[in-house]
Amino acid sequence: GLSAPHLLEPAHGRRLLPLQAGHPEDRVLSGRLGLLAQYNPCRAKLRRQPQAMMALTQRPDPLAFNFTKIDESRELLFELRNLEREQSEGRHLLIINVSPIDPGHCLLVPSCEARLPQRLTLEAVTAGIELAALSSHPGVRVAFNSLCAHASVNHLHWHCYFLQHRVRLQEVELARVAGPCWTWAREDYPA
Fold this sequence. Notes:
The chain is of the alpha+beta class. The protein has 4 helices and 10 strands. It has helices spanning 10-16, 41-46, 72-75, 122-134, and strands spanning 2-3, 25-28, 36-39, 76-82, 92-96, 106-109, 140-143, 158-162, 174-178, 181-184. Strands 1-4-5-6-8-7 form a 6-stranded antiparallel beta sheet. The chain has a two-stranded antiparallel sheet with strand order 2-3.
């Protein structure tokens, strides 16, 4: 089974994270998708300056900031470890996000010591799913942003946060393509 302290709940995140996200203003947009817009000026001011990203396949700059440079005594929440299988490329760490979107927003860094570029791997996807499965909170979200899509650090990581808003993606009807592969049943979802 999975081994991790019971920290992955909003109340714990608010207590542990030193930088407050402020109180973002949320608004559900009109329309059939019910998208949520969030205004959070603190995030824009306090966010780490993004690294120059030129391509989706760009290798991390060893001299630039990466998550092996954090102060683990202050920023490490816990290590995510599945005791039923071997982790091939290093520790999966849940760390404080120094520029959170919301209170409780943290980062999962799969295979931290490998300093992998911000591209998904099978092990990273598995770690993201396992992290989400650790929480009983219905609003837990695990999200990925790639290079050239506002990732500020070229070091493989997921965002983990809590959102009370039910996203339409949770209700989209699916259709089986083949085996374990599924797709949208209708073409009315814009992803």
